[in-house]
Amino acid sequence: NGFKPDSLFARSGARSWHAANGTLTSPAVAVPADVDTLSLVWWAMHYGSGFTPALEARVDMSADGGTTWQPVAIERGWAPVWYTDGAELGGVHGKSLTFRFTATGMEWWLDEIAVLAHGAVTGAPVAAGPQLRPSENPVRSGSVRFTWPFGAAGGDVVAFDFSGHEVWRGRVADGVAPPWDLASARVSNGVYLVVARAGARVERLKLFVARRTP
């Protein structure tokens, strides 16, 4: 209701789901009796506002066929590039779940929505692949460093505020990303989208800045 397939912006495949006002409801998901925890994950992009919470996107879950709904996630702000988001849901073994994505006055794109079951570990853990990671999150000190996820390849690390403005860019050489000096740049507290790019490879993260300022 209100969501339409969009072929202009797609994270993968030919289309994404898009709405400014509308509701996208999933089919019922039958959870096996031996699975107690799920992760609902998705890729998102949105044109909201960093100044008012009235423009938002909300994700809800129902375990009774849509009679009642429980909120599991809220997205706000301006995020003009694709990033991952999700919610972990416990105590759901044997239930039939329905998920609802609701846009309220905010341009919202969704792609690669998936439900993942958390099973018991049956073998040796597999080492996680390289990821873009900050030295702390939330950041409470005067600067933050990032692990570069693309080996020795060069590239850029770019930070955007939730109005979509670029607030910092660091050039990466020999696999070492420069630190972002928040104190010198007088970066305001808030949420930022950090993007690492090396050719066609891209990694993203949400960075929370919560520094004590005099």
Question: Would you spell out the secondary-structure blueprint of this structure?
Answer:
Elements: E1 4-6, E2 16-25, E3 29-30, E4 37-47, E5 56-62, E6 70-75, E7 78-90, E8 96-117, E9 133-134, E10 143-144, E11 146-147, E12 155-161, E13 166-172, E14 180-181, H1 182-185, E15 190-198, E16 201-209
Antiparallel strand pairs: 1-2, 2-8, 3-8, 4-7, 4-8, 5-6, 5-8, 9-11, 10-14, 12-13, 12-15, 15-16
Secondary-structure element order, as H and E? EEEEEEEEEEEEEEHEE
How would you state the average pLDDT, rounded? 87
Q: What is the tally of helical segments?
A: 1
Counted beta strands: 16
Describe what you observe in this structure.
Helix content is 2%, strand content 53%. The protein is built from 1 helix and 16 strands. The protein has one helix spanning 182-185, and strands at residues 4-6, 16-25, 29-30, 37-47, 56-62, 70-75, 78-90, 96-117, 133-134, 143-144, 146-147, 155-161, 166-172, 180-181, 190-198, 201-209. Strands 1, 2, 3, 4, 5, 6, 7 and 8 form an 8-stranded antiparallel β-sheet that branches. Strands 13-12-15-16 form a 4-stranded antiparallel β-sheet, with no helix packed on it. The chain is globular.
Quick tags:
8-stranded antiparallel sheet, globular, 1 helix, mainly beta, single chain, 214 residues, 4-stranded antiparallel sheet
What's the short version?
The protein has 214 residues and is an all-beta fold.
